[in-house]
Every structure is written in structure tokens, then in C-alpha cells.
Amino acid sequence: MTPAEHTLRVAVLRVRKDQVTAKYDAARKLAEGAFAPLRLNGLKSFTPVLPGGTEAGSLSVKGGHTDIVFDEGKLLALVQESEPESVEDYIDPAALRDKRVLDLIREQLPELVGQRVNAERRAELAEACAESDGVLVNTVSGERVKVASVFKVDPSGEFAYTPGKAGTAAILAALAAGTVTEDGEIVPQPAAAPDGGAES
Hints:
By secondary structure, the chain is α+β, with helices and mostly antiparallel strands. The chain has five helices and nine strands, in the order αβββαβαβαββββα.
């Protein structure tokens, strides 16, 4: 091929790639809308089936998740009293831009040192909050304290598709045979004529 032919080929294929990517993104969006309520009802995966019954990989739909939004003051107060070993000092990130911090941070500038629940314990308490609607028990006083808001996020329909080698080969074969279109639609096949049905 000449440089001019290579140039045109690359240009055409790039435009086609952009078209296919746009179609794929639109198809994903539509599929996610269809899959979300099904995932909410417990269906976790689907199998694309080609004409003739050949399976073409697997499609897994992701579940929803739970967001925990702590009331930082209440959480810290509860943990300070009931399990102080889970509280740690930390430096306010804004303080790290202060030139005085290098030499004087804890001794001379205690106002720049705060406390927080350490990351490991915070993660454990987040799991507990997901089960208790944000309420934790102060193990010293026995008081039940609402330290977080809990938001259940339904499945969005987001999914992952894995064709695998066999699925890829099956889809390419179906495309070559003309039983599916490039847009993934099944091509209706003519009905077989009944025996002796041909007229002379």
C-alpha cells in the first residue's frame, strides 16, 4: 500500500471506530436501564445466546451498594469514650502548608493537631452502621448513639461482559454467516419449505 492508501485507511477506520464506540456506549446505557430492576430482583447474570443456541460468554450485572455518611463529631465522641485506643492524632492537611509545622507541630502548635477514628476501626464501624441504620452503642454508658446516615443505593444496571475465546469465535462466525447484524440483532431466517411443498 502507498502512503496515501495507508492514510485514507487509517482515517476511515478511525471514523468507523468512533461510530462503533458511540453505538456501544448507547447500547450499554439502554441495557443498564433494563438490567437495573432485574438485578434488584436478584438476577445477577445473563448469557448471550446466538441463533442456533450457541452461548457467547457471560454478562454479570453489578449490585447496588450502601453509603455511610458519619456525623464526625458524634462518631469521634462515642469512640473517644468507649474505645479510645481506636482514636488517633492527625495533622490537618491545611497545616502542612504552614512553614512552622516542620519544627513545631506538636510542641508549639497543638491547635493544628486533631483526632479521628483510625481507618481500620472506621471501616468496621461503617459495616456495623450499615446493619444498624447508623446507630452504635457506647460501650461505657450503654447509650445508643446515631452516628451516621445510611443510604442504600439500588443497582444501576452497570455490567461487565466477558465473551471469552469461544464466545468471540461464535459471534464472529454468526456475523460471517449473516445470522446476526453488526448491531447485534438476529436476522430472521426463511422458514424451511415442508416436504414435497415445491411446486413444479
